[in-house]
Amino acid sequence: MTVDTDPRFELKRAFDQAALVVKGVTPEQLGQPTPCSEFEVSALLNHLLGVAKRIAGIGRGEAQADELPTLNGVSADAWGAAFDQAMDEALEAWRDDTLLTRDLVLPFGTFPGPLVAQIYVLELVVHSWDLAAATGQRSILDDDLADSALPTAGAMLPPAPRGGEMPFGPVIAVADDRPVYDRLAGYLGRQPV
């Protein structure tokens, strides 16, 4: 596989972006709300760490519980280091080329390995936007990542129904000429900021 076809390259880029945003969060911002109504900043940081740990576990072939792993006791200035460690474990687990040739079991279904990588690119990109929007870091986001995540959102998450088991709000209409992160956020039921 090449850079153009191997989804692990996008996964690494999405992880790198998330790590950059996580490191830009200050202790004073931990209690602030985010565009993802389920989370304030500290809870979103914990969620992102759980996502990274899940990606690692999937790569290692471990069964995944419905709930994401959580970390307790991360000090206010240690989120960046904790995320880096979880990211490194995930990327190492995904070095296994066979992940791209077989189906992988997630808590919400079984999917081909390349699609699983794309699903988690989407999750990392969206939550990086949530965190960046909440902490004044939107200028560091990579538009190309949102461009690659938007088709996955459309393919995996129908516009209706939303709510309940589909943990996204109704689609918010955003004009096609708006920035790609605004369009991605709107499609996922977040108010672009």
Question: TL;DR?
Answer:
The protein is mainly alpha-helical and 193 residues long. The protein is 50% helix and 4% strand.
The oligomeric state of the chains shown is single chain
Structural class: mainly alpha
Mean residue pLDDT: 92
Largest sheet: 2 strands, antiparallel
Total number of beta strands = 2
Textual characterization of the structure:
- This protein has 193 residues and is mainly alpha-helical.
- It has a domain at 7-140: Four Helix Bundle (Hemerythrin (Met), subunit A).
- It is 50% helix and 4% strand.
- The chain has six helices and two strands, in the order αααββααα.
- Strands 1-2 form a two-stranded antiparallel ribbon.
- α1 (7-23) packs parallel to α4 and α4 (113-135) packs across α5 (143-156).
- 37% of the residues are buried.
- The model has no long low-confidence stretch (mean pLDDT 92).
